[in-house]
């Protein structure tokens, strides 16, 4: 994501940056304008996910996903439903409507790392499900190990869904695993910055659903960063002057026909974001 202060330099850079090869001359634009707001334009430049010469996994996390789905068997869909019932309302970082559309049309398009982490974190609530509680729950350490391996592979060719998966992994990690939390938090913050999640998207040329989701994902990153900083005694990776994303309002992501429980969950997430903002002001002096 290119900041407003650099937009004026783009033409100069375009004239002087040579292509990777003589045949590497595309007629498509190198930069895409996503905002022309009063606070300055914001540009997006697609970049390769994998470094040149690196032999990455064809589909990162696919092997771990297949292992977990073989273990879950016919219960796989019920486990996903459990996630959207027990976890996502309180930490709404996955668009449920879009997820189910992909799941029903072509589930292979869903990030394997994200699915592995959905499966793993849903196991925590196994015995709260009327459908699942009568069956044996898979071993949670085994499930989390698969999720961690899937995320590790996904980080070699990261995308925005890598941020989703990392947030769920940190959400399910034991608090005593400080080293893993700190490393994952720092990596997730850097990836969030590279995707421009720290910029206010309200004036961007995209759908309202995507704007709302980007805002929620950023605040989920901020929540993990600030509270892990307080828990582990390490400096935060983000300070208040480094982002301009507004606190998500429940009305932007809670459906009008939502149940009382879902409405309360939305308010709880909103209040957690507000509390995190206060914590961010305090952390520099702790």
Task: Give an account of the 3D structure.
By secondary structure, the chain is mainly alpha-helical. It has three domains: 4-44, no CATH class; 61-172, no CATH class; 192-286, no CATH class. The chain has eleven helices and two strands, in the order ααββααααααααα. Strands 1-2 form a two-stranded antiparallel sheet. α10 packs across α11.
Summarize the structure.
The chain is an all-alpha fold.
Write the layout of secondary structure elements.
Layout: H1 4-7, H2 10-16, E1 32-35, E2 42-44, H3 62-72, H4 76-86, H5 96-106, H6 112-122, H7 140-154, H8 160-172, H9 178-194, H10 208-232, H11 260-282
Helix content: 40-55%
Largest sheet: 2 strands, antiparallel
Pick out the low-confidence regions: none
SS content category: mainly alpha
State the shape. Answer: globular
Total E-strand runs: 2
* Side-by-side strand order of the widest sheet: 1-2
């Amino acid at each position: 994501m290119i900041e407003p202060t650099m937009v004026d330099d783009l033409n100069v850079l375009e004239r002087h940056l040579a292509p990777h090869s003589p045949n590497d001359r595309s007629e498509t634009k190198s930069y895409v304008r996503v905002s022309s707001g009063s606070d300055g334009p914001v540009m997006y430049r697609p970049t390769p996910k994998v470094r040149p010469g690196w032999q990455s996994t064809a589909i990162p996390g696919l092997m771990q996903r297949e292992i977990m789905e073989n273990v879950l068997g016919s219960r796989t869909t019920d486990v996903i439903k459990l996630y959207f019932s027990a976890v996502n309302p309180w930490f709404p970082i996955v668009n449920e409507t879009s997820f189910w559309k992909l799941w029903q049309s072509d589930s292979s398009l869903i990030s394997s790392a994200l699915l592995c982490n959905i499966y793993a974190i849903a196991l925590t609530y196994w015995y709260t499900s009327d459908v699942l509680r009568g069956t044996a729950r898979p071993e949670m350490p085994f499930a989390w190990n698969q999720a961690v391996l899937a995320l590790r592979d996904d980080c070699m060719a990261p995308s925005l869904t890598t941020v989703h998966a990392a947030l769920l992994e940190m959400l399910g990690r034991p608090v005593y695993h400080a080293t893993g939390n700190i490393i994952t938090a720092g990596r997730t913050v850097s990836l969030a910055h590279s995707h421009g999640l720290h910029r206010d998207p309200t004036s961007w040329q995209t759908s309202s659903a995507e704007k709302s989701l980007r805002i929620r994902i950023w605040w989920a990153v901020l929540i993990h960063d600030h509270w892990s900083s307080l828990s582990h005694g390490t400096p935060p990776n983000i300070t208040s002057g480094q982002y301009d994303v507004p606190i998500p309002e429940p009305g932007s992501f809670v459906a009008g026909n939502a149940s009382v429980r879902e409405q309360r969950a939305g308010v709880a997430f909103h209040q957690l974001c507000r509390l995190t903002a206060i914590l961010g002001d305090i952390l520099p002096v702790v």
